[in-house]
C-alpha cells in the first residue's frame, strides 16, 4: 500500500467496488484511505 499514491489508492478502491472484488480487500483499501486521512469528498469525486 505504501507504494500507491493517494490518487492511485482511490482509483483502486473504486475499481474494486465496481468489480465487486472480495469484501476483505475492499475493507483493506478503505482502512488505508482512512489511515491516510483522505477525505470523503476526495474519494467520491475521483
Notes on the structure:
- By secondary structure, the chain is mainly alpha-helical.
- It has one domain (6-45): Helix Hairpins (Orthogonal Bundle), CATH 1.10.287.
- It contains three helices and no strands.
- The protein is globular, with a radius of gyration of 10 Å.
Helices and strands, with pairings:
Blueprint: H1 6-18, H2 23-35, H3 40-45
Helix pairs in contact: 1-2
Can you give me a brief rundown of this structure?
By secondary structure, the protein is mostly helical.
Give structural attributes.
46 residues; protein kinase inhibitor activity; protein kinase inhibitor; Sda_sf; Sda; Helix Hairpins
Biggest pleated sheet: none
Helical content stands at 55-70%
Q: How many domain regions?
A: 1
Q: Strand portion, in percent?
A: under 5%
Gyration radius from CA atoms, angstroms: 10 Å
* Secondary-structure arrangement, i.e. CATH architecture: Orthogonal Bundle
**What shape does the CA trace take?**
globular
Count of alpha/pi helices: 3
Distance between the termini: 18 Å
Nearest-integer average pLDDT: 91
Low-confidence stretches: none
Query: What sequence of helices (H) and strands (E) makes up the elements?
Result: HHH
The CATH topology turns out to be Helix Hairpins
What's the β-strand tally?
Answer: 0
CATH class: Mainly Alpha
Helix and strand composition category? mainly alpha
Keywords: Protein kinase inhibitor
Protein name: Sporulation histidine kinase inhibitor Sda
GO molecular function, one term: protein kinase inhibitor activity
Pfam families: Sda
